[in-house]
Amino acid sequence: MRSAFAWMALLASGCGSEPESAPSVPRDALLRARDLKAGGSRNTFSLATLPGVGTCWLSDREIELRFARDNYVEGEFTAVSGTAYRCWAYLGGCCQETFEVLLQTTDGTVLDRDKRVSMEPGGNIADLIKIEPVGLAIDHQAHGGEKRPAVWMWVSIPLPGYATGGSKRIRLLTCQKGCAVAAVKVSSLDLQPPESPPPPE
User: Fold this and answer.
1) For residue 60, what are the contacts with CB-CB under 8 A and spacing of at least 6?
2) Structural fold of domain 27-187
3) What would the mean pLDDT of 8-28 be, rounded to a whole number?
4) Which of 159, 164, 170, 184 could form a disulfide with 31, with the two C-beta atoms 3.0–4.6 Å apart?
């Protein structure tokens, strides 16, 4: 696994009327595959339907790491200013290598040489998402076969604090074949990831 810094370095190559009440903002959001979108000039993701998972975004080929910025799946949710949010993505892969996913997000920053730098979607900086590697081979060469999403898990996605409310983007990038994204859960209520997979679409 490359360090987060290595990833960042490579990527950098009406009058008188009663006022209307503000619309309530959901405190939880479950974004399914069809709520998410894939994009980028090097896009490798397409919608697929897999047994036990249902619809997901599946990367069907590898690209060079320097192009990962232009290969992503992303979703949006509405945040309330001053509210802390937690986020998890339901990701599929077959080893630590295929679970190599990077994050860019609205208002997000990452530590780089003792200073915080922006990792806004579309920029040159991204942060490596940490996974629980229990039971996963370090790389694909260690177990062989086709790169595919044989293992699924909820993975924690760190979000920043939001000084302002409104629409916020969560962008997941990869250069790996076999990486898949089925759902993203954002919550201001839950402290722990979902205990079960999202129901198949």
Assistant:
1) 44, 45, 46, 177
2) Jelly Rolls (2.60.120)
3) 52
4) 184
